[in-house]
Amino acid sequence: EEEKPENNIEDGDSKQVLADNKTSEVDTKSEDGENSVKKSDRPIAVHANVESDEEKGVLELVLTWEYFLLVLWFSVEVVPLQYYVATIGFQMERKGDTGRNTNLYAIIYAASAVFAPLTGKIADVAGLGVGQAIGTILTSASLFVLASDWSLDAHVSGIAFYGIGRMVVFGMFFTNVGKRFGYIHFGTLAGLGLFISAVISLLQYP
């Protein structure tokens, strides 16, 4: 009798090979009607929750607590941000600004986009919750500085916090919608969130 070749792959190596060649099993129907298992070359989905959310209807996603809390956080952040961007000139003028800080606001606000890749990387590595916390802290710090009686030079730092924080808040909102609920209903969910926050933003008017 011929001897079977010995398997020289150690247990650790075989486990690594299996881990590197993950396949998903899909139930299929054979010609006789019996269930059979067929292996697919596609890797096993890592974000199973996103795939299950994508299968849900848009109304079912809107009525989830997760979407409600996300829109609530976004709306709470947007109300003071919208109020300040609409009254920047008047507020700086009341503090004695002759136009310098108002002009700096436009420049710094546009230049804050430079930090977008960095904040996005932080959200990828540390998680969306950390990204949201950074946006919340920056916007809170900016409003604290800009509402204070500090010098106009100190207000420049508040303007910088405002520009970066606003960018992070909007970025984290759209990223949350895509990662948590998938992209099949992304436009509807993002647009509805913006609409709701816009309606709540009317609270800034007395």
Explain what you see:
The protein has nine helices and two strands. With 206 residues, it is mainly α. It has a two-stranded antiparallel ribbon. Strand 1 (24-29) and strand 2 form a beta hairpin. The relative contact order is 0.13.
- Number of helical regions: 9
Form type: elongated
Number of strands: 2
| Helix percentage range | 55-70%
Cα-to-Cα separation, first versus last residue: 95 Å
Q: Which blocks of ≥5 consecutive residues have pLDDT under 50?
A: 4-10, 14-33, 36-40, 42-48
Which strand order does the major sheet show?
Answer: 1-2
Structural category: mainly alpha
Question: What would you say about this model in short?
Answer:
The protein is mostly helical and about 210 residues long.
Supply the key terms.
206 residues, mainly alpha, two-stranded antiparallel ribbon, 9 helices, 2 strands, elongated
Topology:
Layout: H1 11-20, E1 24-29, E2 35-40, H2 48-54, H3 58-62, H4 65-94, H5 100-111, H6 116-126, H7 128-146, H8 152-181, H9 186-200
Antiparallel strand pairs: 1-2
Helix pairs in contact: 4-8, 4-9, 5-8, 6-7, 6-8, 7-8
